[in-house]
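Review form for a predicted model. The reviewer records the input and the model, then writes brief findings.
Reviewer: anonymous (R2)
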Amino acid sequence: MELICFVPLNKHLSRLNSDVLDDLKSVDNVDIYKTFENFSERLSRPKKLDTIIIIIAESRQDFEKLISYKDFLNNTRNIMVLPDREKETLDLALLFFPRFYIFADQDFKQIGEVVRKCTKNLQREKTIRTKKSINGKCKKINKANKNTT
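Model under review:
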């Protein structure tokens, strides 16, 4: 599983590390971006199906900048940390269809809980996809064997 984080402020980075990242064991790769330019460039590259993205916005303007990259967040699980409780900020954040959102003054440990749940669900989905793939191959082999006899 891959975790991509946009964390422009050091104070949020230390909270993310201590409250979220230190406890995660099932994440294969964690990429942390402190500048919008680097983060947006990463968003435009291919992502795995099991990617989780955490966006900790410094201001509403961060969401306004991200709007043009909204399509690159499709098929990912997004977690948003909002800088304030203003309606306009929440409206912007909801355009990204976040899996979960909190405000910057709340406990980041909630993010860790959501990431763990997403990880568990992703592993279950992967197991189901693998079983379906194996079953499909077995059915094709059985059908081919019946046709040759």
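Findings: Helices lie at 10-19, 36-43, 60-66, 87-94, 109-148.
Further findings: The first strand starts at residue 2 and ends at 6.
Recommendation: see findings above.
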